[in-house]
Design a protein that fits this description.
Length: 315
């Protein structure tokens, strides 16, 4: 069977633009499927393409509406499995519910593990995802997980800007490894902010380790949700004498109020990727740039299909 007959790529409703771009990169059509609702609101999915014995991929991001998109992914996986696909890969550009990954107080769930269980039980044979909130979430699955990084795409963009006197700032300790990758590719210096989360919407920034005075700053993170981390970090580096402030994050969640807080902040440019489609109010941000990760995802899908190395993409 020719490549484009044996591989089937389907799109959930969360990010059809990204699926289109991935399919364009691979030179295959988007799989035909009907996603509808019963009168009571329950979803029904029907694959219009024959998937028997095919290598199937479903692309679905865990963005808003989070619960609806997650359930849709589960139903899609079940649908493909029952239609006798030979292998089903859940392609989850943004993996939701990842931040509740441990019991840091009593009587709370571990949603990251719950979601991993649900995806596996629904029928996924493997998972392809990008910039998990914590890399060790891979271990929550007992099926193979391929974990991609958006850093090469973001680094390429920032490199093209030829920013002088660059310091890469990790806005918290947990992000240090990611920041180190940018340092390696952009030849900047490294600095770290000691962050304390006060509530879901509030963070406090403490000491800075490293030099930001007179430097242009690139702050990188896996996600921008309320933007409290980035706006607070921008304020503190500015107070310590930083010049321009660029921020780069893989997942632009931009929860309610985040776009306005960024507009009111000291940040010069915000760069995110298209793992999540942007809402209209976010698109209006004058200093927002969205880069596509479709080629990285497309290449990884091709390599999974052909049993080739994924890690070689990042070496
Ligand atoms: C924290 O551990 C993460 O890496 C992000 O810094 C955080 O989740 C971003 O959230 P927010 O934009 O709400 O501060």
């Amino acid at each position: 069977m020719a490549l484009n007959e044996n591989i089937k790529i389907f799109s959930g409703s969360s990010n059809p633009e990204l699926t289109e771009k991935i399919c364009k990169y691979l030179g295959v059509p988007v799989g035909e499927a009907k996603i509808e609702r019963f009168p009571d609101g329950e979803k029904i999915i029907k694959c219009e393409d024959d998937v028997r014995g095919r290598d199937c991929f479903v692309i679905q991001s865990g963005c808003e509406p989070v619960d609806a998109n997650l359930v849709e992914l589960l139903i899609f996986l079940d649908c493909l499995k029952r239609a006798s696909a030979s292998r089903v890969t859940a392609v989850i550009p943004y993996f939701c519910y990842a931040r509740q990954d441990r019991k840091d107080e009593g009587r709370v769930p571990i949603t990251a593990k719950l979601v991993a269980n649900l995806i596996t039980i629904a029928g996924a044979d493997r998972v392809l995802t990008m910039d998990l909130h914590a890399a060790q979430l891979q271990g929550f699955f007992d099926i193979p997980v391929d974990h991609l990084f958006a850093e090469p795409v973001l680094s390429k963009y920032f490199k093209s800007k030829k920013i002088e006197n660059l310091t890469i700032v990790s806005p918290d300790i947990g992000n240090l490894k990611r920041a180190a990758r940018y340092v390696q590719h952009l030849n900047g210096e490294l600095a770290i902010i000691h962050k304390r989360r006060v509530s879901d919407r509030e963070v406090e920034a403490g000491e800075i380790i490293g030099t930001v005075k007179g430097r242009n700053i690139l702050m990188c993170d896996d996600m921008i949700s309320t933007a409290a981390t980035m706006c607070t970090a921008a304020k503190i580096v500015k107070e310590h004498g930083a010049k321009k402030i660029f921020i780069g994050a893989t997942h632009g969640i931009f929860s309610e109020g985040a776009a306005q807080d960024i507009a009111d902040s000291l940040i010069d440019e915000v760069v995110v990727t298209d793992t999540i489609p942007q809402k209209e109010n976010v698109k209006k941000l004058k200093n927002l740039k969205v880069l596509t990760v479709s080629e990285i995802l497309g290449e990884a899908i091709k390599r999974i299909h052909k049993n080739e190395s994924i890690s070689a993409m990042f070496s």
